Amino acid sequence: MPTYNIWVLGENDVTLSGGGQLDGVTQGDGSHLVGRTLTLDSTNWSPISVNDGDTSFADNDTGQQLNGAQTVNGVSYGNGSIVEAEYSFDVSDGTNTYTLIAFNVRDSSPSYATVEGIAFIGDPGDWPPVGVPLTVVSAQEGPSYAADDYVEPVCFAAGTLIQTPDGPRPAEQIRPGHRVTTINGRKATVRWVGQRRYRIHDHNRPIRFHAGAIGNTRDLIVSPQHRILVSDWRVMLLFGLGGALIAAQDFVNGTNVVHEDVDFITYVHLLFDRHEIILSEDVPTESLYPGPCALNNLAPDARAELLAVFPEMQSHNHVVPTVAPTLKRHEARLLMTA
């Protein structure tokens, strides 16, 4: 039976205009939200471990059950509790549109009467901005998205050596204010660091690049969606690009790039003023990409702390692009076989 994580932000960390609620009051289709604004109040999204008969997290699927007792939105639920994607809805910040999923623990009558939080559809780290009113432009009943389509963080395993102007330093020893060397030799200042211990399941097993697999001097371990910059003749020949980002999981070949067989891992997130390519174990890898606005994507307390130390960040209210295009899985597979 597949096991995967769905990253959920609890309803208590969301504000709806007009005192609205996420609960499925209109047959669980989300139409009651259209026209309202929704604001994410924090970045407290947490992984919810799900056992499933397939690899899609959907509506009306009683085979989706909690993998062990877990807490959702501050409430504890027992092992085997049924969970589902009650409805989906699209929100806009005026420039970007995001697809969100109403996460429901099926413990009420009718089953759609409660929604405990929201999950997110998109690329790794592509969370909507925090603290920004997002207008709900549409809603749909009966969503069914592959578990791989849900947003999850990109991160380094603790112990990974990150290149700095003072030499390599383990990721977990890097602090806000430290400087890290980028691929083009710049000294980028770290603005925020996150560290957390995760339970690992089949869906989100870390990827181990054995020494030498992609020019790394030691083994490199990253999350499955963490993207690596590839800049060689294949990228130019096949896609006309000087470089492209490829998710770590798309490098897996069963020999020198493999899924790591562990139960727990400590991950470290590094955030800069912009999306950066830094050197981890001598490999060009991406920093945390938090979406359109790095500052607004931080929790209010973290944002206040950053502004106290780095007031110049107040003016960083612009769209943050990825540093290079990202190849889709089928494109990455084509490149790997070239």
From TrEMBL:
SUPFAM superfamilies tied to this protein: Hedgehog/intein (Hint) domain
Residue ranges of every copy of the Hedgehog/Intein (Hint) domain listed in the record: 154-291
Gene3D superfamilies: Hedgehog/Intein (Hint) domain (2.170.16.10)
Highest rank taxon of the organism: Bacteria
GO biological process: one example: intein-mediated protein splicing
Record InterPro entries: Hedgehog/Intein_dom, Hint_dom_sf, Intein_N
UniProt xrefs under PROSITE patterns: INTEIN_N_TER
Pfam families in the record: Hint_2 (PF13403)
Identification of the protein by name: Hint domain-containing protein
